[in-house]
Records
---
Amino acid sequence: MEQSILLVEDEEKLARFVELELMHEGYKVDKSGNGRDALEKALKNDYDLILLDIMLPGLNGLEVLRRLLKEKDVPVILLTARDAVMDKVSGLDAGAVDYITKPFAIEELLARIRVALKLHSVRTGRGSSAASAEDKEGVLRWQSLTLDERRHQVRYDGHEITLTNREFIMLKTLLENMDIVLSRDTLLNKVCGYDYMGETNVVDVYIRYLRSKIDDVFGVKMIQTVRGVGYVIHSGEDEN
Ligand code: CA
C-alpha cells in the first residue's frame, strides 16, 4: 500500500529535492512551507509520517508538533539546523520520533523514514511485525543467538556472551530493527542518549567490540556495514 508523507519545509529547493526523492521511493507526498497550513493539513489528512522543519513561517515547527500530537498519533521526524540542540531536545520531549540535522544525506533520511514507519506500525499493531525477531517471551533471536532483555543476557548456541550495557543496547537496537539499516546517529542516540556531544565514531567502536565478542568467536557475520549509511543485521540465513 502506498504510504503518504507530509513534507513541511519552507526552503523551496530543499523541499523540491526531498519531494522528488520520496516520490522516487514510492511515497505519496504532500508539501507545505508554512506552519499554520501544515498543521491544518496534518489534522485533516491521515499521513503515515510527517517530516517537519522547525524554523517555519506562520507557526514554529515545535508548536505545530505539540498541537498536532495532542490530536493525533503520527510519527514525526524533525528537520533541524546543525547547532539547534535545544530544538532537538524539545522536539523529542514533545513526542517527535527522530530528528535529522540539515544538511543531510538523502539515504540517511530515507533510512530513518523506513525505521520510523516500521516502529510505528509495530507499536500500533498495524502492518506486519514479521521482520522483528522478538518472540512472546521478549527474547530477540538471530540464527543461534538469543538476547533476553529481562535477564539482560546474550547467548550464542547456549554460550553466554558478556556485554557491557552499551554493547547490549546496540545489539538489541539492531535486532529490534532487523533488515533495517540504522544510521550511526540513530544508534548513537539509542546508545549514548540524544544529548551526547562526543564523536559519532563511538558507534563504530561498539560495533567493533560486538564483532570481536560474537562474529570472531562464533565464526559468523552478524552485523553488516552499509557504507556511508550505517549498520544492519539481516534476518536471512545466507547473508555473508
Ligand atoms: Ca526553515
---
Amino acid sequence: MRQAGRSLPEYRKIRGSGSILEVASDPERAAQITLQPVERYGVDAAILFSDIMVPVFSINFGIEIQSGVGPVVENPFRSSNDLKRLRALEPEIDVPYVGETIKILSQECPVPVIGFAGAPFTVASYLIEGKPSRSLEKTKALMEEEPEIWDSLMDILSEITISSLKHQIESGASAIQLFDSWAGLIDPKKYEEKVFPYSKKVLSSFDDPLVPKIHFGLGTQPILHLIAEAGADVVGIDSNTPIDVAREKLGNEIAIQGNLNPEICLGPIEEVEKAVSEILMLNSNNFGHIFNLGHGVLPDTDPAVLAHVVEMVHSHELPEKNNA
Ligand code: 1CP
C-alpha cells in the first residue's frame, strides 16, 4: 500500500516539516518510515521510502518536492541543450543513502522490501512539464515535434532507471516496482511507439526470477497487454479496471496487483468490506494476486480502516493450491 505511512501519526512525527527529499536522504529516518506500515498493519511487504524523482534530483537537474504539490522543476526540459543537464547515475556517489536505507531494512524489516523507480516516461513528464500535470501537453508536443530529442531523453532516463534499480537490488531489495503512473494519459498507439520500448529496455535488464518485477500505471486498461509484455511478472492495476477484466486481457499466468479504490477507504466500513470482498471474488481465488490499493493511500484515511482491510485479506481462505 503506497503511502500507507502518510496517514499515521507516527509518520507525521518522524517526518518533520522539511522536504521529503531531505527525509529520504537520511537512511535511519527513511528506514523507520518504511517500517511503520509494516509494524502498524502487518502488511506482507514494505515499499522503500523514497521518491521517483530522487535519481534526477541527485544529479542536480534542479528539482524540489513541494509539500502538497509534488515534484517541481525550476528550469523544465525544453530543448537539446537540456540534455547536457543529464548524465549517467553513479548510485554509490549520487544516492548512497538509498543503498544504506535498504541495508538497514535488510536487517530490521521482517518482510520483503520493494525497491522502485519511476519509468522513463513518467519521470520525463515531470522534467518537461515542470510540475504535476494531467494534460501533459508539453510532453506530448516534445514527443511529436522533436522525436530525436525525445529518444535521447528517454535513452538517458532509461539508463538512470536501470542503474537506480540495480543499486537497490544489490543493496537487498527483494522485488522492484516500475511506476509509470501517467502511461494511461497518452494515446495507446503513441504509448506503443514512444514509451513502451524504453520501459521494456528497463524491465528486460533484470532477469533474476527471485527478484519479481511489478509494472504499474494508472488508466492502463487499453495497454494492459503492453504493460505485461514490457517484462512484468506482476501487473499493477488501478481501481478503474476490474480484476476480471484485467484477467481476460492478461490470462492466468501473470500476477495482478490491486485494486481497492483509495477513496472507498474514506467512507463507511460496510462499503469498504463490500469492495474488498468483491475484489477477492472477482479474482476467483487466482494465486497470482497481490492485494493492494489501486493507487496511494489518501492522507485522511483512518488507520483503523486500513488495519481492517489487511485483516480481511489475511483471513480470506484460498483453496489448497494442489486441489485448485
Ligand atoms: O509509500 C510510500 O510513501 C513510499 C515512498 C514513495 C513512492 C513509492 C513516495 C514518497 N513517492 C513514491 C512514488 C511516486 N512519486 C510516484 C509513483 C506512484 C504513484 O503514482 O503514486 C509518483 C507519480 C511520484 C511523484 C510525486 N511525489 C507526487 C505526485 C504528484 C502528481 O503528479 O500528482 C507527489 C505528491 C510526490 C511527493 C511525495 N512522494 C512521497 C510522499 C510521501 C510524498 C508526499 C510528500 C509531501 O506532500 O510532503
